[in-house]
TrEMBL record:
The protein's name: Acetoin utilization deacetylase AcuC
InterPro entries: HDAC_classIV, HDACs, His_deacetylse_dom, His_deacetylse_dom_sf, Ureohydrolase_dom_sf
Organism: Chitinophaga sancti
Keywords noted in UniProt: Hydrolase
Organism classification: Bacteria, Pseudomonadati, Bacteroidota, Chitinophagia, Chitinophagales
PANTHER family recorded: HISTONE DEACETYLASE 12, HISTONE DEACETYLASE HDAC1-RELATED
Amino acid sequence: MLIAYDPIFAHPLPEGHRFPMAKYELIPEQLLREGVVKEDMFHKPQPVSEETILLTHTPEYWNKLKNLQLSEKEVRRIGLPQSAALVMRERVICQGTIDCALYALENGSIGLNVAGGTHHAFADRGEGFCLMNDFAIAANYLLHHQLVRNMMIIDLDVHQGNGTAAIFEEHEKVFTFSMHGEHNYPFHKETSAWDIGLPDGTTDDEYLNKLASCLAFLMVRKRPEFIFYLSGVDILSTDRYGRMKVTEEGCRCRDVLVLNNIKKYGIPCAVAMGGGYSPQLRHIVNAHCNTFKTAAAIF
């Protein structure tokens, strides 16, 4: 098992900013303290190359990002301050997801990025705390280098992966599956290959039963050569924005369900953590750590 992590993931934001950057530092610390992983499992990615970025994002958008020329409106849409450090952070995160995917392919196993899951970034713009789309960049990298013929993105963040859906709309080699809050952000949904919108207040049993039936269909009918799994923990009942009633145990069972299916069919997998906005940081960190614990137990 490979874990992509760099201290840059916990890059500080201005005082009082809503985005919980501290979780990226606390997740590795807790995993090591509990003996779930060892130091040699951690991998420090390099920044992704411009050539690889441009397989997914438009030259115009990339030039704005790297030269810090986003308009005030574009910065507001992203929700993060414009800075060279945050652009570099995003580049490292994206390469981390690529490295996880390459490790999983080479070893028939799994790689997990402590960050990532930046699924609200479109080819030509960012939004929702996402500057660049790491899953899309990694998927296009694999396709460009002819490492896989087809793949699937399983997006279980509470928010629809609208940027990912738009990038791969009608793309026959990348099947996008998003199960999310129907009435949650983004309020204008893009079209994934398969969207499941859940009502506010969805409970553990409702969530897991729906997911189990979807996975049974997807694994048999689609048979992807590779899977990207976005394991957002903003489905938790404690989440500030999630609107779901899924417990921490229910969230853990979701990971067990997904990763057991992936293992059963022998599909290499790269995982990114996605969102989590519970007021108490321990709820976020515990739920994310459960994803790593589940992966370690299954793979």
